[in-house]
Design a protein that fits this description.
The complex is a heterodimer of chains A (360) and B (433). Chain A is α/β, with parallel strands linked by helices. Chain A folds into two domains: 184 residues, Periplasmic binding protein-like II (D-Maltodextrin-Binding Protein, domain 2), CATH 3.40.190; 155 residues, 3-Layer(aba) Sandwich (D-Maltodextrin-Binding Protein, domain 2). In chain A, strands 1, 2, 3, 4, 5, 6, 7, 8 and 9 form a nine-stranded mixed sheet that branches. Chain A is globular and about 65 Å long. The termini of chain A are far apart. Chain B is mainly alpha-helical and 433 residues long. Chain B has three domains: 66 residues, no CATH class; 123 residues, no CATH class; 221 residues, MetI-like (MetI-like fold, Orthogonal Bundle), CATH 1.10.3720. In chain B, 68% of the residues lie in helices and 1% in strands. In chain B, strands 1-2 form a two-stranded antiparallel sheet. Classes of the chains: A alpha/beta (360), B mainly alpha (433). The interface between A and B is medium-sized, with 31 and 38 residues.
């Protein structure tokens, strides 16, 4: 009897360990420098710690394959990194598993994860991994005396001559225009929610319409700055940071008036390895891992307790902290992009923006 | 004996002479005509089997997807499929009926069901197309409805948000309660529906598509004309030079043709931008001052220049192939009969190049109408074409029905122009190479 028991438990143990080794996780990320930060800071330590093998693949925008796979009923992705806006939309359309925030790792001092994350970083289906932002940047060599300090200066072509470059689209630009027109960041969406507010934003944009080159791909603004085609840009912070840091360009970032958004993990509905996916999400959103990821790319961790843990820029001895959108000094005049506003008004304002652009 | 199906056998028996009934028969006694038809039918079937893979390929990769895409322009069941009770109420009650208790009950029931099935976002998106600002009305109502809605439903739902009482919202929901709609086509020509369901112009600041359609066709015409102006002399030169030298020149025409579209577009950016090569040279020569640098890109000029360059080979190649076949002795004969060189060109040479010109112009024009990468990169704000709007609706707003409606109108426009071309020039006159 005893022998049978030992044998049985041994068999179960072997089976269990075999199963642990078989465990696998399919991660869908973005590739590039951003995808690399995921691999270095999350995937490798996770594999070392748990023995679960993680297969990483890339997509231009992981939200698109999620939609395709769930609708076709053939889901192979377990965890994907998507933009906040896409996460909310996919969640509303029932394409994502819900994630219970109680699985997340608490902060070092014992603060519950739900309180440690910045506002809005955890939703029904989404856990934030990083914060990126649209910032103003200028070519330092073009302005010898006064330096631009905020949105109002971006619209002041008399004081700061030269062309500007802005993203071709209504989102971000209307907010920036209102802030330049003197609206406080916490009032921006309230004003933009009224027809007069929209008119006001477009009127402000009109003042520099002839001085703007519109960009569509994220790589364009640093290029336009480097070519001397524009003197100021309204662009993603990571791109400008990379050009300044890695290529030594004299680009400076103005954090006043930054508009930030989040990216994070989602689990597609019917994912094959949900338990492993949750384990991975809990592991990778722990403060240490979030801080580590920020050393690879200048996107800020969405956890308050992670900010202090961020070290030097990988491969240098320059601290990364002040280059992150979430750095305390950078957040004083910051605006959180309001997703609800944009899902409601995206089409309408985008059409108006296009009509405004097309009218000469 | 030869097999009856062999046509040669039939001919052999035919030679043997007619039978008593006056009709020709094959050796086994069947009428010759029948046997011939049968054998040729078999040959046709074999030929059809040979082209079948290509036919299936075209059907699967071209006709079916395009058909499905076009269907989206009139069909969107985002509302009707997910709000069945309310849709049924709309069908039973004609327009103008005030929403009664049954309607509110149906709304409450559908909201709860859609919230549970997490399809409320789809419903909200559909209504948001016709009435901006309503998507969150649906998603937030869904969130509240998940915990249950108690009668009286009207009060309960108005409690969630006063906007539910808006007659415009009910009118839009009625429109959406049928999966088939013409609203996307209306929007594509800057029209919309008012509360009574009548067609009216869209607000002035939203009107854009008609203008962009006009601009697309106008710019495509300009670009076609430019490629003709630039391409005609080159094609003529290529056709008249000795083979060795013309082959060398031909490589110069084809080399950019083989280069990636993006590389060529980026090259134009480097050349034409304000700190670019052309402006630098002009400033260095003293033609313009340093602060008068010309804006040649990120506007309509940039679109025209870059697209003319990219589409040039499509004009040159058909022209060249036609010009090669023109006998030079015709022009010489005209000159010897006293025609000036202009008259000889106008009356003798040019008319003979028309088939090539027609083919080139049609190719360039149709390609230009659908171009979108180049205008997106170098067009700035004034050089955008309708295809940029289609791309935007496909990838950004995800309003595929709208994209399909715009694309269908573009396709219809091209077909009409093709028909006009056929009337004026004749499609048989086309020579593609």
């Amino acid at each position: 009897m005893k022998r049978t028991l030992i044998l049985t438990s041994a068999l179960i143990a072997v089976a269990a360990s075999a199963q642990a080794q078989d465990k696998q996780l399919n991660l869908l990320s973005w590739g590039g420098a951003y995808g690399n930060s995921h691999v270095q800071a999350y995937v490798k330590p996770f594999e070392a710690k748990t023995g679960i093998k993680v297969a990483v693949s890339d997509a231009d925008n992981p939200a698109t394959p999620i939609k395709g796979q769930v609708e076709a009923g053939n889901v192979t992705i377990d965890v994907a990194s998507v933009e906040y806006a896409d996460a909310v939309r996919l969640c509303d359309e029932g394409l994502l598993e819900e994630i219970d925030s109680s699985i997340l790792t608490a902060a070092g001092d014992g603060t519950a994860a739900a309180d440690d994350f910045i506002e809005g970083a955890i939703t029904d289906c989404f856990v934030g991994t990083d914060v990126y932002s649209m910032i103003l940047a200028y070519d330092d060599s073009k302005f010898s005396d006064a330096k631009p300090a905020g949105p109002a200066d971006f619209f002041d072509t008399a004081k700061f001559p030269g062309k500007r470059t802005m993203r071709k689209g209504a989102k971000f630009n209307l907010e920036l225009a209102l802030m330049a027109d003197g609206v406080a960041p916490d009032q921006v969406y309230e004003v933009l929610g009224t027809p007069e507010g929209v008119d006001r934003a477009f009127a402000k944009l009109e003042t520099i319409k002839n001085d703007v080159i519109w960009w569509e791909a994220g790589a364009q603004p640093p290029q336009l700055l480097a070519d001397g085609e524009v003197t100021m840009a309204f662009a993603f912070n990571g791109r400008i940071f990379d050009a300044a840091q890695k290529e030594g360009k004299p680009f400076k970032i103005v954090w006043n008036g930054q508009i930030y958004e989040m990216e994070g993990w989602v689990v597609p509905k019917g994912a094959p390895n949900i338990e492993a996916a949750k384990e991975f999400i809990a592991f990778s959103t722990a403060p240490e891992q979030q801080a580590r990821a920020a050393e690879f790319i200048s996107y800020g961790p969405p956890r308050k307790s992670a900010a202090a843990l961020v070290g030097n820029i990988e491969g240098t001895d320059v601290p990364m902290g002040p280059n992150l959108p979430t750095f305390a000094d950078n957040m004083t005049e910051a605006l959180a992009s309001n997703l609800d506003f944009w899902v409601d008004h995206d089409a309408e304002l985008q059409e108006r923006f296009n009509a405004w652009l097309a009218a000469n | 004996m030869a097999k009856a199906l062999d046509p040669h056998a039939a001919i052999v028996t035919e030679a043997a002479g007619p039978d008593e009934g006056g009709t020709l028969r094959t050796a086994d006694g069947r009428p010759l005509k029948q046997a011939l038809v049968r054998s040729s039918r078999r040959a046709r079937r074999r030929a059809f089997l040979l082209v079948l893979p290509l036919l299936l390929f075209i059907l699967i990769t071209f006709v079916v997807p395009i058909g499905q895409m076009l269907q989206r322009s009139v069909k969107n069941d985002g509302f009707s499929a997910n709000m069945p009770s309310l849709s049924a109420w709309f069908h039973e009650n004609p327009r103008g009926t005030e929403p009664d208790d049954a309607a509110w009950a149906a709304l409450a029931e559908d909201l709860q069901a859609a919230a549970k099935a997490r399809t409320i976002g789809v419903v909200g998106t559909r209504i948001n197309y016709d009435m901006p600002g309503t998507r969150s009305l649906f998603t937030s109502a869904g969130r509240k409805a998940r915990s249950g809605v108690e009668p009286p439903y009207k009060e309960a739902i108005l409690e969630m948000d006063q906007k539910w009482g808006d007659p415009k919202l009910w009118s839009v929901m009625r429109e959406a309660s049928s999966p088939y709609t013409s609203n996307f086509y209306l929007a594509a020509v800057d029209r919309t529906r008012d509360e009574q369901g009548d067609i009216v112009s869209a607000p002035a600041q939203q009107q854009i598509y008609v203008k962009l359609f006009m601009r697309t066709f106008w710019l495509s015409l300009v670009i076609t004309f430019m490629t003709f102006l630039l391409g005609f002399p080159i094609a003529h030169l290529l056709a008249t030079l000795p083979m060795r030298r013309s082959n060398l020149l031909m490589i110069l025409v084809l080399l950019p043709f083989w280069t990636s579209l993006l590389v060529r577009t980026t090259a134009w950016m480097v050349l034409l931008q304000q700190q670019g090569v052309v402006n630098d040279v002009l400033v260095w020569l003293g033609v313009i001052g340093n602060n008068q640098r010309l804006q040649m890109i990120f506007n309509q000029t940039g679109t025209i220049i870059a697209m003319t360059h990219i589409l040039l080979p499509f004009m040159i190649l058909p022209l060249y192939s036609v010009m090669r076949t023109i006998n030079p002795s015709y022009v010489r004969a005209a000159r010897s009969l006293g025609a000036t060189s202009w008259t000889a060109f106008r009356r003798i040479y040019f008319p003979q190049t028309l088939p090539g010109l027609g083919a080139g112009a049609l190719l360039v024009f149709i390609l230009a109408v659908g171009y979108y990468i180049t205008p997106a990169l170098v067009g700035g704000s004034s050089g955008q074409l309708i295809s940029n709007m289609i791309a935007m609706h496909m990838t950004q707003t995800l309003n595929w029905s709208m994209a399909a409606a715009l694309a269908a109108l573009l396709l219809a426009g091209v077909l009409v122009l093709y028909w006009v071309y056929d009337r004026l020039v004749g499609i048989d006159n086309l020579k593609l190479g």
